């Protein structure tokens, strides 16, 4: 049993920045990866970024590589997604998710999901 709570979403102008947080808790924190996924209305959910928290190896979708950075603070069981140079097409509900294995952006590997946080990029 793992609980995930996202925070940090909001309204931001194009070219702006936001940092999302994913705080993990529960009966076991011996996980291998945390992923960020997003879903815009009318579009399929897609992987954004993921991190193997044991060694900080990270994965990025091509659409965000170079703009987004994933990191972890294991002392407080929190994973961050720093989002820079935001574009309107980044608008979506962003979810963090937990995987018992290091699966990159393979959505089916993630078994626990947060409630989501809305990110809106608009002028």
Task: Outline the structure in words.
The structure is a single chain. This protein is mainly β and 123 residues long. 0% of the residues lie in helices and 51% in strands. It has no helices and eleven strands. Strands 2, 4, 5, 6, 9, 10 and 11 form a seven-stranded mixed sheet that branches. A hairpin with a 4-residue loop joins strand 7 and strand 8.
What keyword list fits this structure?
123 residues, mainly beta, 7-stranded mixed beta sheet, 4-stranded antiparallel beta sheet, 11 strands, 0% helix, globular
How are the SSEs placed, and which strands pair?
Layout: E1 2-7, E2 10-12, E3 18-26, E4 33-39, E5 46-52, E6 57-60, E7 68-73, E8 78-83, E9 92-99, E10 112-113, E11 117-121
Parallel strand pairs: 2-11
Antiparallel strand pairs: 1-3, 3-8, 4-5, 4-9, 5-6, 7-8, 9-10, 9-11
How would you sum up the global shape? globular
Low-confidence stretches: none
Amino- and carboxy-terminal Cα gap: 40 Å
Structural class computed from helices and strand pairing: mainly beta
What series of H and E elements makes up the topology? EEEEEEEEEEE
Radius of gyration: 13 Å
How many helices does DSSP assign?
0
How many beta strands in the DSSP annotation? Answer: 11
Relative strand content: over 45%
Oligomer designation: single chain
Largest sheet: 7 strands, mixed
Q: Kindly state the mean pLDDT as a whole number?
A: 93
Helix content: under 10%
